[in-house]
Amino acid sequence: MRRKVGVPRQVRTYSAIYGLAALALAAYGVPRLPKLEHGVAGTFSALWLLLLALYIGANLYFWLGADRERARQLEEEAYQSAAREERPGRMRLRA
Length: 95
Hints:
This protein has helices spanning about 10-30, 40-65, 65-85. It is mainly alpha-helical. Helix 1 runs antiparallel to helix 2. The longest helix has 25 residues, at about 40-65. It starts with 8 loop residues before the first helix and ends in a 9-residue tail after the last helix.
């Protein structure tokens, strides 16, 4: 029996919508950020840009379905280990 592999379509749709919303937020917010200088304002700008990049990256990861390949590899490994257990193998005698 095969298990389902991949990301459900609904998750991909939501990640596309949220990714576009994050890009719109970036287009609106990045020009209004303070300059990247030493101090509280620069630290805030750097952290805001870092979190925005992580958020956009996570949504792209799910939207592009990058974890489908990993799920396929895990499934293939499970089939190979099950096939190894079912086949009777020769026992080696140690000298």
